[in-house]
Amino acid sequence: MKHTIQILHITQVAGRSKKTGNDYDMRMAQCIVHKINRATNLVEPLVGELLLPEKFKDTVPGTYEVEFDVAISRDKRVGAEVFSIEPLKEEQQKSSHRHASGTPAATT
Fewer beta carbons below 10 Å: N end or C end of the chain? Predict the structure, then answer.
């Protein structure tokens, strides 16, 4: 399933691991996830941080359709990782802020 995510800012986190001595270079994207509430069918914005995989490290701020895969972390927790990121076209961006059925969402 694809999700609409608006990336606001990307921060580089780089250094050397104290534990392994290996260098690391990660990109953390501060973003807004346009989540559809299954009960109300309305878009609910969620703010968070997303770890961008190495192949997407050159991603720039913007609005994207992001697809996730199930992943297992080092501490054996089930989670998700980015599988694909595709820029959202301008007309799709407008509709992502609407009610999931295509009608405008209520504004407060």
Answer: C
Domains of the chain: 2-15+22-96 (2.40.50.140)
- Is this structure's pTM higher than 0.70? yes
Nearest-CA neighbor of 36 among 58, 5, 64, 75? 5
3-class SS string, 15-32: EECCCCCCEEEEEEEEEE
Mean pLDDT (10-residue bins), the chain, 108 residues: 93 93 94 94 94 94 96 92 90 53 45
Selection from 46, 88, 48 nearest residue 67 by Cα: 88
